[in-house]
Amino acid sequence: MNALEINNLCRSFPDFRLDNISFTLPSGCIMGLIGENGAGKSTTIKLILDMIRKDSGTVTIFGKDNTNINLLKEDIGVVMDEVGIPECLTAKQVAKIMKYTFRNWDNTEYTRLLHRLSIPDNKPFKDFSRGMKMKLGIAIAKSHGAKLLILDEPTSGLDPVVRDEVVEMFYDFTRDEDHSILISSHIVSDLEKLCDYIAFLHQGKLLLCEEKDELLSEYGIIHCTVDQLSDIKKIKYKKETPYGAEIIVSRNDAPEGFKLSPISIEELFVFMVKEAR
Amino acid sequence: MKGLLLKDLYMMKKYCRAYLIIAVVFIAVSFASSENLFFIFYPCLLCGMIPVNLLGYDERSKWVQYSQTMPYTKAQIVSGKYLIGLGTQIVVLLFTGISQAIRMSVNGTFVLSEYLVLLMLLLIMALLASSITLPFMFKLGVEKGRMAYYIMIGIVCAGSIIASNLFSESFRTEISPNGILPVICIMGIGLYALSWYLSIVFYKKREL
Predict the structure, then answer these.
(1) pLDDT tens-digit profile of A82-137?
(2) Where are the domains of chain A?
(3) Structure ipTM
(4) Per the structure, how many domains does chain B have?
(5) Which of A136, A197, B97, B155 has the maximum number of C-beta atoms within 10 A of its C-beta?
(6) What is the secondary structure of A125-178 as a DSSP string?
(7) What is the topology classification, in CATH, of domain A2-203?
(8) Which residues of A touch B15 (CB under 8 A)?
(9) Residue B183: domain span
């Protein structure tokens, strides 16, 4: 069963339109939603969670339409870019609140995670660093038996060490083959390490959604001079600079006599977005 | 729902201590001074604003959005605030009522009908503040809601001045406080219920 299916999702605002978004996240997989600021990542997540109304399209979570999302929220752990815990609360008080909020709240798991992540249980949330706030948010999401984590920019503003710890927590979550993650970020390198599927969003449109490994094996990058460009056919994307040119080609169409280097997701994303502008 | 109430209780404990101290001081002063009704009514008005302030803290911390990711309906989130409001108002009403009953008994001025009139006035005061404020907050958010609330209060005050000028003095003296107060009291409870319902309707339509 798919954890998440989105079909032709649209939503218009006076100054922005999320246009016909469709993608599928199979159970047990991690999908990265990559886009610049304002590309529509948070809007997509809010539509999935039915926090804002869609104009058209469907969202299905574990095979059920999201219009009755309250029945599904026990199975979904959410971490937004701002965690949303009131500043005066301590991690210990949060546990008591969540015990009455989620039917499957696992206090033993929560305490274990607090201990593992060195989160103090008696310190008010306002005194937490951004990294600690995010870790607490993730600990909550992982302590009520969620099968799907939806994470909106969970790594933005974190230092590299904490980012690595957070990414490790996501790996840990997906050890169970029923667990899936939809994670949005504009820090492509994090998602490149983590994700099975990659979706590129740009100005409210989905530029692509593919399996990461296929994407990496499908394309390659060639560094050449501007004069050599005329010798190369079937260029997917190109960038010219005063020092030369970089072109992305499909590996099947790679020209002979040029060195084809592996491409990173970040490079591909930047090329695609610049082409789309 | 229990989780929402518990969260609000923790927040009240932290953010509303000043309210409690002011209410206790005012109840104590009203116990000593029977002349000034302001000291009797103010704790009720003050505590009526507690749910509004809690909502303000919720918005600031982004709990408003976060709670939407939990298995709570919007009706439950609204009801949590109204129940907290009702709970605090009942407690304040109880303390004010008991202190006034003791004061009247000690002074030898206890008359049951007058005491009941006082209790009804207190109840109306307690319910009025949050009844009027909360629907604006749930529809527009705390910042815009506050503005709309002040405009609304301005219109109501202007309306009352115009109405009092329109009605003749003889008509006003014919109205017995003992007769009309229970009606106003029932209207106050009705207004609270209507406000609760409207807040749910507004909040369901609001995108967070």
Answers:
(1) 889 999 999 999 999 999 999 999 999 999 989 988 889 889 999 998 888 988 99
(2) 2-203, 215-276
(3) 0.84
(4) 1
(5) A136
(6) GGGS-HHHHHHHHHHHHHTTT-SEEEEESTTTT--HHHHHHHHHHHHHHTTSTT
(7) Rossmann fold (3.40.50)
(8) 88
(9) 2-205
